[in-house]
Amino acid sequence: MQRYSAAIVGGLIAGVVTTAVMKAGRNSGLLTKTLDRDAVDWIDDVTGSRAVIGDSGTSAVEFVNHLGASAAFAAAIPVLRDLAPSLSPVALGTLYGTGLYAVNIGAIAPVLGITEGEVKAGPRKAAERWAIHVLQAVVTAVIAERLTDTPRR
Questions:
Q1: Entry pTM
Q2: Using N-to-C axis directions, what is the helix angle for 49-74 and 3-28, rounded to 10°?
Q3: Distance between CA atoms of residues 39 and 43, nearest Å
Q4: All structural domains of the chain with their residue ranges
Q5: Which of 124, 119, 72, 120 has its CA nearest to residue 100?
Q6: pLDDT per residue over 72-119, tens digit each?
Q7: Cα 110 from Cα 70, distance rounded (Å)
Q8: Which helix (H) or strand (E) element contains residue 128?
Q9: How far apart (Å, rounded) are the C-alpha atoms in residues 15 and 79?
Q10: In what helix (H) or strand (E) does residue 83 lie, and over which residues does it extend?
């Protein structure tokens, strides 16, 4: 499979994996209110979607958005691979996930009102959000590496 296609497939699979991890984490009590639930609340606040399509419908909209973002961000993996060819997919994913967390959750999400900001969220919730972003990027990078036609240099 070509590198960009492999990365996007990896991103889509990672989107499903992280959603499952967040749901399982919430249900088990290991995670607090996860970012996907913050996003569902934000979508409803902005659009009033729960009154029209309910919580399940709003959750489905958020999930589709999450998959789209996962695929879009995954497209950077081949570029990052070229910039750091000696890094393992796990190391590359960890660095990229940390960067995505810093930009998306540390900077953009609070400005948009999706989150309260990481200082207000507290260390536990911030660590959970960071870990999910790292998981997302690691799964993406590992799957992209396994699916690609071109071996790593």
A1: 0.92
A2: 140
A3: 6
A4: 3-147
A5: 72
A6: 999 999 999 999 999 999 999 999 999 999 999 999 999 999 999 999
A7: 20
A8: helix 118-147
A9: 20
A10: helix 77-83
